[in-house]
Design goal:
With 297 residues, this protein is an alpha/beta fold. It contains ten helices and 17 strands. The strands form three sheets. It has a seven-stranded mixed β-sheet with strand order 1-2-3-4-5-6-7, with no helix packed on it. Strands 8-9-10-11-13-14 form a six-stranded mixed β-sheet. The chain has a four-stranded mixed β-sheet with strand order 12-17-16-15, covered by helices on one side. The structure holds zinc ion (2 copies).
């Protein structure tokens, strides 16, 4: 099945891999960088080969299964050292079976891959990449910015040439900070501030679970949300796949004014019917967290 490709700019693509997972591709004059590889259900390699014949480098924004299980199709993969162990765990047989069952439950199309191929051991060579390192694609240079929060080794990719920040799972309408591999809220706030200090370098933010293109100023809303998390104003959140958490949301006033809805859960029930532009323009911020994460770091 052909994957849906969104062209962002000349040589920049956001690709829907499977379920609610997107990968991004930035093409330079000498090579291209694929940011994340999805679950491995969508034959991302074939799609990328149709967009460029240049050598492909792969970067994982973090080690979660929905960003790394497609790595097996590629030779060379880079990840932040603090997510190396998480990537190993999430590409194991056990986690490959988890994603297969999840895909079946969600009715995802698995026609491009067999269970045997999906659980095959990953033979790609993995190297580490650190905060501040540059990736030269020829005419386009990308910078890695370490943004601990969603996981300890989460990174964003700054494309100063195209003025885009690729944010992985670190910044979007819903940020999961409640998993055991996440860091505390003060640590996440430090990461948001670090990116805000670079806001002159990008105009838009592209994340891993949406076609929405957020404006750079969305980071200010996320910072406000993270700094004002209140357990009293939070609601219960059930991720269905990764456990329960508290959810603090800001932007509900805009949600009510535009759509007559009052909660993030109501937003989720209509989100698929909204256009990517509407979701981006709403700038709703919800953070799922555990109360003990409010202090520390
Ligand atoms: Zn994640
Ligand atoms: Zn994800």
């Amino acid at each position: 099945m052909a994957l849906k490709i969104y062209q962002i700019k000349d040589g920049v693509y956001h690709i829907h891999e499977s379920m609610d997972v997107f990968c991004s591709l930035v093409i330079g004059k000498k090579r291209a960088l694929l940011i994340d590889t999805g679950y491995g259900f969508g034959n991302i390699k074939k799609t990328v080969s149709g967009l460029t014949k240049l050598p492909i480098l792969v970067l994982n924004t973090h080690g979660h299964l929905d960003h790394v299980q497609g790595n097996s199709a590629f030779k060379d993969v880079m990840i932040h050292p603090l997510d190396m162990a998480l990537r190993k765990k999430h590409t194991s047989l056990q986690f490959r079976l988890v994603s297969w069952v999840l895909a079946k439950k969600q009715g995802a199309s698995l026609s491009d891959i067999s269970l045997l191929n999906h659980v095959k051991a990953d033979s790609s060579s993995v190297t580490t990449i650190n905060d501040g390192e540059q990736i030269d694609l020829g005419g386009v240079t990308l910078e890695i910015i370490w943004t601990a929060g969603h996981t300890m080794g989460s990174v964003c990719v700054l494309d100063k040439t195209n003025r885009i920040l690729f944010s992985g799972d670190s910044f979007s309408s819903l940020v999961w900070l409640f998993l055991k591999e996440a860091c505390d809220i003060p640590c996440y706030i430090k990461s948001v501030k670090k990116l805000l200090s670079r806001i002159a370098d990008f105009d838009e933010i592209i994340s891993s679970h949406s076609a929405a293109r957020f404006s750079a100023s969305f980071l200010e809303r996320i910072l406000h949300c993270a700094e004002n998390i209140s357990p009293e104003k939070s609601t219960m959140y059930d991720s269905k796949i990764a456990g329960k958490a508290l959810l603090y949301t800001e932007g509900l006033d805009r949600l009510e004014k535009r759509y007559g809805l009052k909660s993030f859960a109501e937003f989720m029930s209509i989100a698929k019917k909204l256009s990517a532009e509407e979701v981006a323009d709403l700038e709703l911020c919800a953070i799922a967290y555990r109360p003990e994460q409010l202090t520390g770091c």
